[in-house]
Amino acid sequence: MSKGVFFLKNATGFGKHSFWVRGIPSPLIEYLPTTQGFNAIDGIHTYNNPQKDIYDPISKFTGASYVLVSKNSLERRVEKWLVENFRLKNNADILIEFSFQNIQIRGANHVEFDIMAKTNQAGVKFAASDIYIKYSTEAFGEDVVANEKIEATKGTIIENEVYTLQLADETEQIVKFLVNAGLEPNELYSLSSFFEKFLHVKLDIQNVWQLAQLSFEDFLMGNQSLFYDEASGEFIWL
User: Fold this and answer.
1) Over 60: is that where the pLDDT of 90 sits?
2) Torsion of the alpha carbons at 190, 194, 199 and 202, rounded to the nearest 10
3) CA count, 13 A, side-chain hemisphere, 168
4) DSSP codes, 132-191
5) What residue ranges define each of the domains in the chain, with the CATH number in brackets?
6) pLDDT per residue over 51-61, tens digit each?
7) Distance CA 168, CA 157 (A)
8) CB atoms < 10 A from the CB of 68, how many?
């Protein structure tokens, strides 16, 4: 069974959901899995960027956005890959653990996920952190902050107004999340031994074909987190 984009018209007299293939030279843009990912071809052209080369022109011509009925095999493969490969390196793992959860791919448009955090030590309050995410420029483009291709919103841990959140392009393929707070312990959030939401991130996809064949390095978490230890009454950099 072929998978791809079919150009059809209603077949009157053959039932409600009957269609003819339209009388055009290339009525099908076929999705073909390869050892390196996926190709989209119509017998004449090869399409490297499905959003730009296929979906956007169709939406512009018809004046309607596409509707996601169910995830296709490509989307299921990408989502499975994301769940298996999104990891956070954290050298402060004695005190705090970060994790990626609720990873979802939204059609060919963007990926969303939550960064969660918990601690294994009682009496620890979160104060500040710099988090770095490294990504593939082939899949997501370059300088995603400057190009407005990424959004981040504060989760439960840092939703208090005392915490500020800023994003910056550390390099063309690394985003830096800067989370800071004042140094008044009473205003800081007490971390739990259960995962709670730290950030929600939405990242636009430039080329879903490339996303399907990524070999990400692990996400990077530097030793740049500041905590307040209630037992010692001191701030700790890790």
Assistant:
1) no
2) -170
3) 8
4) EEE--HHHH-S-TTTTT-EEEEE-GGG-STT-EEEEEEEETTEEEEEEE--S-GGGSEEP
5) 4-74 (no CATH), 76-237 (2.60.40)
6) 677 777 888 88
7) 21
8) 12
